[in-house]
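seq:
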Amino acid sequence: MLEPVKISLEALNLATLMPMLIAVAGGLIILTIDLIKENLHKSLYVMLTVLIILIDMGATLGLNVNDRGFFDVMLVDGIAIVTQIIILVASALFIPLALTSKRFHEYSYPEFFALFLFMLAGLQFMVSSDNLILIFIGLETSSLALYTLIALHNRHNSFEAAVKYFTMGALAAGFFTMGSAILYGLSGSLELNQIADALQARMIEPGMLALVIGGASFLLAAFAFKLSLFPFHTWAPDVYEGASAPLAGYMSIVPKIAAFVVSMRIFEMFIKLNVEWVQTSILVMAVITMTLANIMALVQEDVKRMLAYSSISHAGFVMAAIAIATTKSNSAVFLYYGLFMFTNLGAFAMLWVSRHKHKVHHARFDHPYEKFAGMINIMPMGAVVMALFMLSLAGVPPFSVFWGKIYIMSSAVDVGMIWLAIVMGINSAISAYYYLKLIVYMFLKEPSTTITEETVYYNVSKPLMTVLGLTVFATVASIFFVDPLLEYITHMVQVSGY
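struct:
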């Protein structure tokens, strides 16, 4: 009879699970409070959620780099820590927006904050493991919570957006499962480092390359859905349009950076195995994504849909960095999203500054360009802030996103991909048109005669102004902290072995 294996708590190293457990416990505490006492003011839940996020941040910063735990399925490397910091900072900026107005009723539900924390836990599991099962659990936990958060906006197009996102997410989950099954069949393991060793030893076998490409294809399709890359991008504009403006901004940053980290772990494994098809496919997909999204953004009549296509284009930029697969390009991914986080969340939040009670400008869209006409005369500071965000997204120096773009282009030149840097430069020039179009409307056009106090609601609450102030400061002051930020990111990527 086999002796039972004794496992000590020290060997489990439960500290590696602490950030996720804090988020899950926070969600359960909020649900428990609601069960005990109903109809409490949402400010309690906002403050409680921000407190839990800050405690989570403290637990994350206290982790040891390159540590493993919980039967070795948890991997706390430098990349996992940097990604969790970006996720938690974006979350801490997003949650106070719930206090901005009584008109957005989804924030009055305690379930919104509980689901948000469960989503955070799922995203943290995704980025803190190289085990395909745990990555899948984290992916589905975060996705299922996010589908519900979108539907809680409780409008017709919000339900449509949630269903579309759920359908696409289910398809992506199927692709991920199939790809993982193929890799498990070839290697006998679900740990990425063990899969890499097993495949390296078997690559000379006949037919092995075709099977590896098959598994990689399923995984690439799964993450192309999650990252809204061509040709799996069609759901994104409709989902962003249906979600509330700040949640759309949050979706364009946080779930994507988590998916990018998993993509980096998986696809750079194939690139290091010299499976050239993977690198070529990612490059082609990235170039078509950024170019097509920019062309589509040019013809949009709604600012929110324009920002959605803009986010797709930025995802193409970052995916190209993953295909380059060097320490510099991987560092560029985190620099880019660390800076893009402030600008894009701020730009989507600015859509909340003015809200029409009726669709006075357009029969379908909530945020047409005409809505922002003459904004310099109505809300001068709002127009200046939105213009700063647009200039940053366009990559105009010295604003934040410029540094991310230039560093990715520099990493492409370093490996001899000058053509890729040129394509990125051309796409930045194309994107400048639709960003400047909004600035022209705000500064050079006359205000619409249909705007009156009865038809428009101006949201200038202190929480919104505070969040916008922080995002503007980060966008403008980025020139002063890019170097130390880049040094920290590069160090964390290097100690992770990427």
